[in-house]
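Lecture 7 notes. Example A: sequence first, then its structure tokens.
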Amino acid sequence: MLQEVGAAPTKLMTNKEEVIRLVIDEIRPNLRRDGGDCELIEICGNKVMVRLTGACVFCKLSSATLEGIQAKIVERLGEFVRLVPVAGAPARN
């Protein structure tokens, strides 16, 4: 589970992370169809760090994709969050 730095784990954080993951999972098939993907990196307060991968990295519409994901997360959570793109290679499992 991702946690806010310096914060004790709370049920609210678990629900917030779950909602964010669900939104990304809903959008994922569209991203993959175009050869890309989105990975949740970290949640820190109202900042949600994500990494776009594959074709999304160099896509001219990636900012629109991020805005769409952010809008869906805000709608579902009922609170403002800011999606922050993080550069770099995807994590290896």
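Example B, a different protein, same format:
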Amino acid sequence: MKVTVFGIGYVGLVQAAVLAEVGHDVVCVDVNAERVEKLNQGIIPIYEPGLTPLVTNNFQAGRLRFTTDAPFGVEHGLIQFIAVGTPPDEDGSADLQYVLAVAKTIATYMNSPKVVIDKSTVPVGTADKVKQQISAVLAERAVDIQFDVVSNPEFLKEGAAVADCMRPDRIIIGTYNNQPVDVVRELYEPFNRNHDKMIFMDVRSAELTKYAANCMLATKISFMNEMANLAELLGADIEAVRKGIGSDPRIGYHFIYPGCGYGGSCFPKDVQALIRTSEQNGYTPKILQAVEAVNNKQKYKLPVLVKKHFGDNLTGKTFAIWGLSFKPNTDDMREASSRVLIEELWAAGATVHAFDPQAMEETQRIYGIRPDFVLCGTKEAALQGADALIICTEWQQFKAPDFDFLKQQLVTPVIFDGRNLFDPERLKQKGFSYYAIGRAKSVQSYDVL
């Protein structure tokens, strides 16, 4: 099938590459000429496991093309994906200007029937606005061309997006009528062969499904962080609690790991957006408000623990930070807990030595060159001259360090573990002061909230 994808950011690029991989003829359109040029040179703008060979192979095979030529893109595809960003507005609501701009572009240049698929994460009612925008432009052009608007939210996990896209556990399709059903079924047939993964519903239900899913997962994380804070006060071990409740199949083990707060491009933005949507409709979403509040406070957990140990004035202190991205297997720094930590350490006068397997370039882009900030080439290099180690991201290579070497490198044997990677008893035996999240066996626990 001939497919056009508007927006070659994280979602658009992964979706386009996977569609090309199964044989569809895909054209990607973006207003960022520099990004398009780099992709045409084989330079992938984001880190995502498995994405680079997928893009490169399909580009070389001619099934995946990149352009800034919007009229060509509209002419090319029966199916037109909208996969542009919906950044939070000043009040936290989703900014739809880019989505509606693409809708206007499609309507301006279309000369044949189109199925417009909204892949961007958008508030309930956005498909109505897209439909109205296209209808208004077609009316201005005085043409009558058939089109359908479909809501098809993405459920990709950063770090596993290619696998999620190739082997989706469900494909949500929201439509106004049955008109586009056969076209969408044909599009996704290669991903639907083992069993029917497609779930059809009305457009507004599909839009809400995306937000409800992300907000449910965010709720589980904030709930566990709140239980971890309570465990510290009660002298309990949150890791034992996690195993105990996770063994209940109604709860499960997914997303019940306590830590130093969630980040990324989805959870913070989507929780905020659904809160605003609720408020705009006269409803107070108390659970969502609590999820956001708990997470915002949790991001200050590590800096408060550091100051409890070393004092409020950290002038002259140096801290090694392992992990900068908001989660492993990505270079995404959006809303990352490490950013709160780093900025709090700087505000207290400290110097930071940091290492991340993938997010170093992005961190440099965000913070530039500073005398109190050193990006180190290895995790070992970050330890040199540091007064303590702080762990923000649970990359695999951080999970089994040489503790004897680590102790030799640090000025003082102190570890602040924002992801509960280590056994408190073992660290105590090795002579470390070890601060974790909700671990009664850690050297000392504080109520930091």
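Note on Example B: Residues 301 and 448 are 6 Å apart (CA to CA). The mean pLDDT is 95.
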